[in-house]
Amino acid sequence: MTAAVTQKPLVPGRLEQSSTRLAFFIAGFGVAAWAPLVPYAKARAGLDEATLGLLLLCLGAGSILAMPIAGMLASRYGCRKVTIAGTLLICLALPLLATASTVALLIATLFVFGAGLGVVDSTVNLQAVIVERASGRNMMSGFHGLFSVGGIAGAAGVSALLALGLTPLWAIAVVIVLLLAALAKAAPHLLPYGSESSGPAFAIPHGVVLFIGVLCFIVFLAEGAMLDWSAVFLSAEKHIGDAYAGLGYAAFAVTMTAGRLLGDTLVRRLGPTRVIVLGGSLAALGLALATLAPGWEVALLGYALVGAGCSNIVPVLYSAVGKQTVMPEHIAVPAITTLGYAGILAGPAAIGFVAHASSLSAAFLIIAALLVAVAISGRILRV
């Protein structure tokens, strides 16, 4: 086995910053390319909704298991090699996701695909922490903004290719070519080293890292609620037509992306503490407005406020991880990324249980209360 990389290059500069942005785009593009394929996979394998839901958990399981391993490998072999390996795993899994017709093959492929996504997501966030710290400037929101742009491009691009009459396999072939081209452009300036911190390969998050992870969990829980439940809520409670119910998530995604692309400037002007306080408050207000106000038009405005409020909280929290000294960052970054993913995965299911026991409105108001707690925590957390 190769020895750990110990020699460090010069301080990361503009080329490393550009490669970090491109790596975030790759992560967003790769995960979103799968979304338009879900109905095709469901039809090929003859799955009902319950079975499909269980299958999708395999994707999350692969991601969550891979994230701490990615942190360990990045600290030993460098961010470049681990990011390349994760991207190649994504490219390996996508053609199978476009053609698999048995449950067993879908389970295995979704797990591998999720592992690749988890490796890339965790590693590019670790690189982002290192690059931002070396720059001495706020850059994390812009990095995460490129993830959002990649997500929009991946979902819209694959949908457009399918609408033009391409088969899922040919559409994915185009995606793989673009992913490999982006990787070839980014790879030379991805960091050949990982965290400079020493420490164990794995550790349970504690102290401020656990606190940051819980805040990430709540914000990602809100994001998962928008993704999985906003359309259901608009259709059932606001009586919008099914064809337009997706506008709620669209309003959220647009303001989320715009907020992140403008976020570095906002963080510099307002300061990270105010970004968390004001962002959490705005998101809570938006979710309460969408839930309680009559009319779907007001609900769309509320979802847009949720996207704007949440957009820069997580990037600020990742920056805070780079400043803490409680845990080595190659452990801390995967830890909070894993907790965030847990919010996206477990959150929608928890919302379903609350909605079944009470109502979907009650579930949304609980999330709004949790976002208020995030805003209050911004004054406690030193960022």
Beta fraction = under 5%
Shape: globular
Main β-sheet description? none
Class from helix and strand fractions: mainly alpha
Helix and strand sequence: HHHHHHHHHHHHHHH
Q: What is the CATH first-level class name of the largest domain? A: Mainly Alpha
Q: How many separate domains? A: 2
CATH superfamily of the largest domain: MFS general substrate transporter like domains
Mean pLDDT: 88
Quickly count the helices.
15
InterPro entries: MFS, MFS_dom, MFS_trans_sf, MFS_Transporter
Main location: membrane
Pfam family, one: MFS_1
Organism: Pseudomonas lundensis
Give your account of this protein's structure.
The chain is an all-alpha fold and 383 residues long. It has 2 domains: 16-189, Growth Hormone, Chain: A (Up-down Bundle), CATH 1.20.1250; 207-380, MFS general substrate transporter like domains (Growth Hormone, Chain: A). The chain is built from 15 helices and no strands. Helix 1 (14-32) packs parallel to helix 4, helix 3 packs antiparallel against helix 4 (79-99) and helix 8 (207-236) runs parallel beside helix 14. The longest helix has 33 residues, at 103-135. It is globular and about 55 Å long. Mean pLDDT is 88; it is low at 1-7. It is a multi-pass membrane protein. Keywords: Membrane, Transmembrane, Transmembrane helix. InterPro entries: MFS, MFS_dom, MFS_trans_sf, MFS_Transporter. It holds the Pfam family MFS_1. It comes from Pseudomonas lundensis.
